Amino acid sequence: MKIAMIGTGYVGLVSGVCLSDFGHEVTCVDKDPRKVEMLLRGDVPIYEPGLDVLMARNVAAGRLTFTGDLNAAVDGADAVFIAVGTPTRRGDGHADLTYVMAAAEEIGSALTGYAVIVTKSTVPVGTNAAVRAVIEKTSPEADFDVASNPEFLREGAAIDDFMRPDRVVVGVTSDRAKKVMGEIYRPLFLRDFPILYTDLETAEMIKYAANAFLATKITFINEIARLCEKVGADVKQVSKGMGLDNRIGNKFLHAGPGYGGSCFPKDTSALARIGQEHAAPMQIVETVIKVNDEIKRRMIEKVMDLCDGSVNGKIVAVLGVTFKPNTDDMRDAPSLTIVPALVGNGAKVRVVDPQGRREGESLLPGVTWMEDAYAAAKGADVVVILTEWNEFRALDLARLAGAMKTARMADLRNIYSPKDAEAAGFGAYSGVGR
């Protein structure tokens, strides 16, 4: 099938590349000429393991191309995906639909025949109906259907998630649109991956409900971790005991410095606002947002306590600043709360992150970027593990401790055990919930 993908951000680029690998003819559109030029050169503007190889393969096969010309991409397309940003709107917490509606208007003007307009961006309930209204107003004679197809991609594992999904959710209002969407996802259907067809509003709600529930699991175990510290329990064992219950499961039950990233913060905020507007307050979600912010601030206190109440003049080595490993994404990362607070309290902060520097340099002023954990720890007063990159999971703890001025560790991802840290020479260790 011929597909136009509007937007080459994280979701749009990964989805476009993967759909081309299904055998479809995909044109990815972006308004930024520099990004289009970069993609045409074969350079990938985001870090996602394996994406560069998959993109190059499909470009070489003639199935994937990039352009700034939306009209040309939409002309003759069977489906047009809207995959533009929906950031949190300033002031009210709602998802900003400016880019979605602008894309819908442009698509309406460009349509030359029947097409399914597919919203891939995460949007509030009712948005797809609004997209239909915009296109109808722009082009009253246009022949089209609207579909909702929310994404469920984990950064760092996005390609595998697209190719081997837990489920594909498709909201449609006609058999004609269902048939087109069925053809698009035929390779997954043939391999027995579940495809759930719903109405538009249900598909929109599934996305928000799923993300809010996962954010709630993370926040719940972080609250349990705080109580564990007070009563002498070990949250890692508590998590394991909970996760062995099949009704609960072990995913997203790892205590740490709170959730961040491109999805959970904005989606929980948007869902809370949707609930308020419809007089059905999302009280659990509202509490999750509040508690998550408190958790990030509590991590600052942990580092301060390790330094006898003050980091002023102390050298702090921070390992990892992206919101999770295997991505360069810094959006709403806990580091954006924790590191500036340390700098603001007089600490000399050294940062190591395999992929975070490109975005992090402008977001974390006043820090020194280093390439190696051991170099960052040399002469340091405390080391803080903030993102669980693999290279931080197998550190030579004795070497790390030996390089430090005072061997103290704030292990905010519970990578190491207190016993191993002590045996390696760390005089003080602080984890989460232990």
Q: How would you sum up this structure in a few lines?
A:
With 434 residues, this protein is an alpha/beta fold. It has helices spanning 10-21, 33-40, 51-60, 70-74, 98-110, 127-138, 158-163, 175-184, 186-189, 200-231, 235-243, 264-277, 283-306, 335-344, 357-363, 373-377, 397-403, 418-423; strands spanning 2-6, 25-29, 64-67, 79-82, 115-119, 144-148, 168-171, 195-198, 315-319, 348-352, 368-369, 382-385, 408-411, 428-430. It is built from 18 helices and 14 strands.
Note down, in words, how this protein is organized:
The radius of gyration is 23 Å and the shape is elongated. The strands form 3 sheets. A 6-stranded parallel beta sheet has the order 3-2-1-4-5-6, with helices on both faces. A 6-stranded parallel beta sheet has the order 11-10-9-12-13-14. The chain has helices at residues 10-21, 33-40, 51-60, 70-74, 98-110, 127-138, 158-163, 175-184, 186-189, 200-231, 235-243, 264-277, 283-306, 335-344, 357-363, 373-377, 397-403, 418-423; strands spanning 2-6, 25-29, 64-67, 79-82, 115-119, 144-148, 168-171, 195-198, 315-319, 348-352, 368-369, 382-385, 408-411, 428-430. α12 runs antiparallel to α13 (283-306). It contains 18 helices and 14 strands. The protein has 434 residues and is of the alpha/beta class. 45% of the residues lie in helices and 14% in strands. The mean pLDDT is 96.
Which properties best describe this structure?
6-stranded parallel β-sheet; elongated; 434 residues; single chain; alpha/beta
Model regions low in confidence, pLDDT < 50 over at least 5 residues: none
Mean pLDDT: 96
Helix content: 40-55%
- How many H/I helical runs? 18
Q: Which class do the helix and strand fractions yield?
A: alpha/beta
How much of the sequence lies in strands comes to 5-15%
Q: What's the β-strand tally?
A: 14
Write down the Rg.
Answer: 23 Å
Largest sheet: 6 strands, parallel
* Widest sheet, order of strands: 3-2-1-4-5-6
CA(first)-CA(last) distance? 54 Å
Shape descriptor: elongated
